[in-house]
Design brief:
heterodimer, A: about 110 residues, mainly beta, 4-stranded antiparallel beta sheet, about 0% helix, globular, B: about 110 residues, 6-stranded mixed beta sheet, 3-stranded antiparallel beta sheet
Chain lengths: ~110, ~110
C-alpha cells in the first residue's frame, strides 16, 4: 500500500513549456485535491475532484487543468508554465468524512 | 468567505517550556478544524482533528466557537516538535476531501535546546 504518490519529485521548466504532474493513490479514495505551497502563503487549493469524471476549481485554478478519468489518478497539467507557478505542489486524497492523506510533493521551478 | 489566520509566522521556545500556536477562523456554518504538521521538506501529516478529540504527541486543541479559535497547545515542548504547523478548516464531518481545505499561512515552531 503506497498511499499517495507523486511524480516527479523535482522539475525545472522554461517559461511557456507544458508539463503534467502525476498523482496516484491506491486506497480507493473518492476525493482527491491539488494544493500549491508557497512561502508565507500556506497551502492553497488549486482543483479538486469528488470522483471519476468530476472536477471543480479551488481558490487558485488559473493556469492549471485537471481531469479524473480513473479513481486512482488525478494529474495536474500546466499548459504554458510561468515563473509565478514556481512552487511545491501537493496532492491529497481521502474517503468520505476521512481526513486527507498528502503525497510527498513535487518541487517545480519555472525559469 | 472562509478564512484561517495564524498570526505568528515564527515561534521560538525553549525545550520543556509550554507551547501555544494560535489559530483563528471565520466560517459561515459549522466548520471542522484541523492541525497539520510538516517536518522539514516532508509531506503534511494530520496532527489533530477537532471532532476526534484525540491528543497526539502531547498536543491538544480545543475549539472555542465564541472566540472562533482553535489554538494548539503542548505543556512541555520537545526538540522533535520543531516543524511547520498549519491550521485548516473544512465543512463539518467532511474531513476536508469533498471541498478541499482552507489553510492558514503556517507557523514555524523552533524548539531551542
Amino acid at each position: 500500500n503506497a498511499g499517495v504518490t507523486q511524480t516527479p519529485k523535482f522539475q525545472v521548466l522554461k517559461t511557456g513549456q507544458s508539463m503534467t504532474l502525476q498523482c496516484a493513490q491506491d486506497m480507493n479514495h473518492e476525493y482527491m485535491s491539488w494544493y500549491r505551497q508557497d512561502p508565507g502563503m500556506g497551502l492553497r487549493l488549486i482543483h479538486y475532484s469528488v470522483g471519476a469524471g468530476i472536477t471543480d476549481q479551488g481558490e487558485v485554478p488559473n493556469g492549471y487543468n485537471v481531469s479524473r478519468s480513473t479513481t486512482e489518478d488525478f494529474p495536474l497539467r500546466l499548459l504554458s508554465a510561468a515563473p509565478s507557478q514556481t512552487s511545491v505542489y501537493f496532492c491529497a486524497s481521502s474517503g468520505p468524512q476521512e481526513t486527507q492523506y498528502f503525497g510527498p510533493g513535487t518541487r517545480l521551478l519555472v525559469l | 468567505a472562509q478564512r484561517v489566520t495564524q498570526p505568528e509566522k515564527l515561534l521560538s521556545v525553549f525545550k520543556g517550556a509550554p507551547v501555544e500556536l494560535k489559530c483563528n477562523y471565520s466560517y459561515s456554518g459549522s466548520p471542522e478544524l484541523f492541525w497539520y504538521v510538516q517536518y522539514s521538506r516532508q509531506r503534511l501529516q494530520l496532527l489533530l482533528r477537532h471532532i476526534s478529540r484525540e491528543s497526539i504527541k502531547g498536543f491538544t486543541a480545543d475549539l472555542n466557537k465564541g472566540e472562533t479559535s482553535f489554538h494548539l497547545k503542548k505543556p512541555f515542548a520537545q526538540e522533535e516538535d520543531s516543524a511547520m504547523y498549519y491550521c485548516a478548516l473544512g465543512p463539518m464531518y467532511s474531513g476536508g476531501g469533498a471541498d478541499g481545505l482552507t489553510f492558514g499561512k503556517g507557523t514555524h515552531l523552533i524548539i531551542q535546546p
